[in-house]
Known about the structure:
This protein has 4 helices and 6 strands. The chain is an alpha+beta fold. The chain has 2 domains: 2-41, N-terminal domain of TfIIb; 50-147, GMP Synthetase, Chain A, domain 3. It has a 3-stranded antiparallel sheet with strand order 1-2-3, with no helix packed on it. The protein has a 3-stranded mixed sheet with strand order 4-5-6, covered by helices on one side. α2 packs across α3. This is OsmC-like protein. It comes from Methylotuvimicrobium alcaliphilum (strain DSM 19304 / NCIMB 14124 / VKM B-2133 / 20Z) (Methylomicrobium alcaliphilum). It holds the Pfam family OsmC.
Amino acid sequence: MRLLLSRYRQMEAKVKWVDGVMFVGETGSGHAVVMDGSPDHGGRNMGARPMEMILLGLGGCSSFDVVEILRKGRNDIVDCRVEITAERAESIPSVFTKIHLHFVVTGRELKANAVERAIKLSAEKYCSASIMLGKTAEVTHDFEVIEV
């Protein structure tokens, strides 16, 4: 586990300006993403907004944890999605002030207390993005379980 942790302590990314307010970000693992602004901010709406990318990162980080915790607990999980809503401060810097994650977890004979435990462990112990964003925003969670 120590080798795995040390591999993720240092991360790299590059962001290159393309045109207007469009940028291409490239991760250290070689994946690229386009970021662009809305037309009312000089963009052409050709990519996600940078602050949306933060929410996507949070959703990915927390969903990864929830799925892994449930799978390690031998739960028969077949789908997991998280719907995120957020509010930002009106003044600059427009940081997130409230973030809500609604998990929809689908599986066979999934127990609500197992899903609740997985979400809590992610939020309080494992999800770096959630814990970091929780320093400036009120981060809340709820969930629903769908039986198949």
